[in-house]
Write a structure and sequence with these properties.
Blueprint lengths: L1 E6 L10 H5 L4 E6 L5 H16 L27 H10 L5 E4 L7 E5 L1 H7 L1 H6 L17 E5 L14 H11 L2 E2 L9 E2 L4 E5 L29 H4 L2 H9 L8 E3 L13 H16 L3 E6 L2 H5 L4 E6 L1
Parallel strand pairs: 2-10, 3-9, 3-10
Antiparallel strand pairs: 1-2, 1-11, 4-5, 4-8, 6-7
Amino acid sequence: VFFLMIRRPPRSTQSRSSAASDVYKRQILFIANDASDIQSALFKHIQSLQDSLGKTFQPQTQYNLPENYCLNGKDPKKLTIKQSTIEFAKGPCSPVVIVPGHQGTMLRAQVNCPVLRKERPDIFQACGWDQCEKGFFKNVPANEYTIWIPPLESPMNLFSPNEKNSICLGAFLQLHYQNTADPLIRFVDTPGIKTDWFGRTPETKSQGQCGFRPIQNMFPVSKIQPGPTSGFAQMISYLERLGYQKSYSMQAIPYDFRKTITTNDASKLIEQSIDYMYNLVGKKAVSYTHLTLPTIYSVQISVVAVSL
């Protein structure tokens, strides 16, 4: 695990507005090799807060922090959001921003059947579809599919020995480059396919959990989660036990990992989250991420790494 203190770049090197650069003074970044690092990293951060807040909190072992520790022991179920925010601001913890690493976000694709069938009949056929109108003995695509990681019954089944399933998955994950000045539309999906992260499509908006659902338990069999596919599930559960609340004292930043760091909106969302929570509780945010260059660079900051 590495503990990275975020430092504001010298004024002579700043290219962003002073308001935007102030965001980076409000952040501490932990890079974790896996989600089990959360307890050790969080404990180190709580220790570092004591001096900055001018307070001394009851010492705790890093694996024995009590329930609702960040709310001074108060039960969030018995508090209003405003009361919880006040208690969190007075407590020993800082708000958290969680940024998954590469391939650490569930992706969801919308299908425009007529367009896909016309523009890419090869993909249409590989996925096992034959028309867009429902009827007996007809294979019609659904409106949406989870394409990372696809369910076992999906035509993109990652574990199927059928080559057509692999072709279908590859076609849905593929991006196409177009020469444009706007980086956010420089890489586009195949015509007839529109991809976003789980929770930001019409059929999944109610299931996104403020961005937390797509960064945990991604394996299609819910009761079987190999270490990497569990994502930040363990971390999120642990933070909630300490009194953190989604959207208020912790935020998740899912993103389309297929795109480059300059062509997705992760950097903007990270900056907005850090700024929002700093204004809410008056403390520096803590960012947790897996060790990948895109997720580090996406916050566009200078760091000093100190090995824990």
